[in-house]
Design brief:
This protein is α+β, with helices and mostly antiparallel strands. It is built from five helices and ten strands. The chain is globular, with a radius of gyration of 18 Å. The two termini are 23 Å apart.
Amino acid sequence: MPFTVMGLVPQPTLEDVGDLSLMEGTDGHRRQQAEVGVSYTLWRNPDDHDDPGNLAELDEVTRASLEIDPPWPRPSWILDSVKRLRYRRLPEAVRTSWSSESYAETTLAARLVQHVNHILVNHFRTELGLAPGPTFDGPWRARQSSVNRRATLEVDGVARPAAEIDTDPFVYGVGVQLSEDVVVTVAIARSELPFVRLALAPRGMLQPG
């Protein structure tokens, strides 16, 4: 990737287990955009992983399905992945996005709106009253008119000028323009904000272990 992948600074309530989402776009000849999303396991009580407060809010069908053991052995990495489905997550909490000069949606505001709407439509469908199937528009969507450009966000220990979306009832979003072609955004459920320190650093350099 032609950029440094950013993540939330190491903190007791977050566990980075390498859960990354990757996206790349080309014009048929060269890369026009690339994006890396970082997800985390969230421990509301990091001192006791068995605390019920650390469990994800799953419906009964999903929770029951996690209890089923298939009649064939599964590798340890699959067992670990299934176990983690029981716990709270911050899905794609941090996105680092790069765009070439020719790609249109390169602005911080556009990336931030896109990130917040992605979390909303994929993780708050019930709360938003959305029917199953593709959803492209509606009054639930965050828009660029909601972007406040007077925020700050700590990056590498320094407070940087930032943009935020602080108007949605379910998701909070904030981001900074790291360079002319790189933007980093954060989108997190409001219910989990009390357990997260919103500060960024290069992901590969400061992860524990």
